[in-house]
Design goal:
Length: 108
């Protein structure tokens, strides 16, 4: 998650026209304290019951564990790009994400 924070200005255009929401099954208090202490400029949502995980079918089939999937939603509310799984340790993933955000913001 630190890469989102560290590359926020580049990937997410400093939040201009972009909202970043990290959704986790972690408790909201734990998540808030962690995000606050780390200085994240993005939003976080807590999904302790896994409702979002079920809704978007982002659970590993053999495990009771949510995958790290990334959705880019355009200004009309349409999912314009999906990275499944999002490979957070691969620098190319952030290039792909930045391109997808730019494409979602700037419609032809």
């Amino acid at each position: 998650m630190e890469a989102y924070r560290d590359q926020y200005a580049t990937i997410f255009k400093n939040g201009k026209g972009v909202a970043v929401i990290g959704i986790s099954t972690d408790d909201d208090t734990v998540q808030f304290n962690w995000a606050h202490d780390k200085g994240f400029p993005v939003y976080f949502a807590s999904d302790p019951k896994g409702d979002v995980v079920k809704l978007y079918d982002v659970k590993y089939p053999a495990l009771n564990y949510a995958k790290r999937v990334l959705f880019v939603v355009d200004p009309t509310g349409r999912i314009s790009h999906v990275m499944d799984p999002f490979k957070e340790l691969n620098a190319d993933s952030y290039t792909e994400l930045g391109d997808a955000v730019t494409k979602a913001i700037v419609k032809p």
